[in-house]
Amino acid sequence: INFFQRISLAFRGLTDLASAQALWQPPSNQITELDLSGNCLTDASLRELARLPRLDTLVLDGNRLTCLAHLPNLPRLRVLWLNRNSLHNLADCVHRLIRCCPSLASLSMMDNPAAPSYFNGASYQEYEDYSARAFPRIVLAPPGQGRTESL
Fold first, then answer.
1. Which SUPFAM superfamilies match (predicted)?
2. What class has domain 5-140?
3. pTM more than 0.90
4. Crossing angle, helix 90-100 and helix 124-134, to 10 degrees?
5. Which of 22, 27, 65, 137 is buried most deeply by CB count within 10 Å?
6. Which residues contact 145 (CB under 8 A, 6 or more apart)?
């Protein structure tokens, strides 16, 4: 029996995670990797992630996220991709991630207004410096490098 499941619900036009639950084949307590890229998820929809206690990897690239205020505690989350959203306040995002994701080891927030990068007139070095101060143990994705493995 495989107790650890990868689920991809990418590019399905999802606006909330409650409707996505009907698409999950394994029970939510068995999902360890979830790809929700390219949907229409908003900040409030993040609350539903609390139903995924074993979540280790989460990809939320290309959604409509503006903040992480509704991100629940995800103590096992190690990998988080938030690229191409509309996250505006880097300090708020960092503080929320520190509090909610104590195991976080890999973070990518490229192409967000909050993340200093060449996408918004800053350098990748500025993004890396800020994130390294906030998350000393985190590995950041180099510029131009996406996921090496798709979910």
1. L domain-like (SSF52058)
2. alpha beta
3. no
4. 40
5. 65
6. none
